[in-house]
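Worked problem 6 (solution included).
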Amino acid sequence: MPAIKRKPLAKKSGFTLVELSFAVLFVAVLALTVIVITMDLISNYKRGLMLKQVNTIGNSIIDDFRASISSSSSKRLVSLCEANFSQNAPKEQCENDEAFSSIYLVRNADVTINDAENPVNVPVYGAFCTGSYSYIWNSGYLFGDNYSVAGTSKATLRYLDENAQPVNLEDFRLIKIRDPKRYVCLSKVSNLGTGAAAIQQTYAKNTDLIGGLTSNFDITGFNEAVAEAPVDLLENDEYSDLALYDLAIVKPASDTTERNIFYSGSFILATIRGGINITASGDYCVTPDDYDNEDFEYCAINKFNFAIQASGE
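Solution. The predicted structure is:
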């Protein structure tokens, strides 16, 4: 009887448990890499949009300054002292100061950033009076949740509307108001209150006001103080996360021959997030260890410089 030939058993193919584990691990690493790269691209895109927004708004503020300064008087600024002070002592102080306090005021305060041990002394609000429009600003330090400001509150403005009724304006970041006689700044050069009678009694140099400038700008005590409604230059919801962190004006330069007045200065515009520290050297956006990256990616900051000539009468 012939022997029965048996077919060899078919060799089974497939993955071993080790091979399967390596495959799953590879797919997981690949997926994680794709996710990380995608999140990084989205984050960079958002930061780019925010930086573009900062630059766009910063340039629009310079354009607004240019329009206001260009239309302001080109007369020597010390003429403001003669016009606003009748007594010799304050008039002399005003002239020695080159009427600078009638143009620019700033308040500094100690600010704690991200619960740091040591606060930094930085500007928190101020005013810039061009002789056409006046600007009042509140720093981003007064709006961000990760800042603590000692000893002061936000600047406010009290003015008269078209019906000569007093209006209190609060919680703004950067406003401009029609103010050809610079009443906004003149209201603060006196420590005795507001109004023309008060500023004729005393005059404080701008440097004296850096630490002691009170937050209420009240122009209701001046004649002809009925004003147009102020405009908030950072009110738009699209830019609600932006604020100034400094506005510094240099004493205007005068050319008596050509009767030109040149204004120059700088300002820092940034988001209210990210732990902005304008006194830092290099890294102005400080990230605490437990900071939410989703919020921090909106940290953006830029400094803008300008020089503009007054050419009005």
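Discussion: The mean pLDDT is 80.
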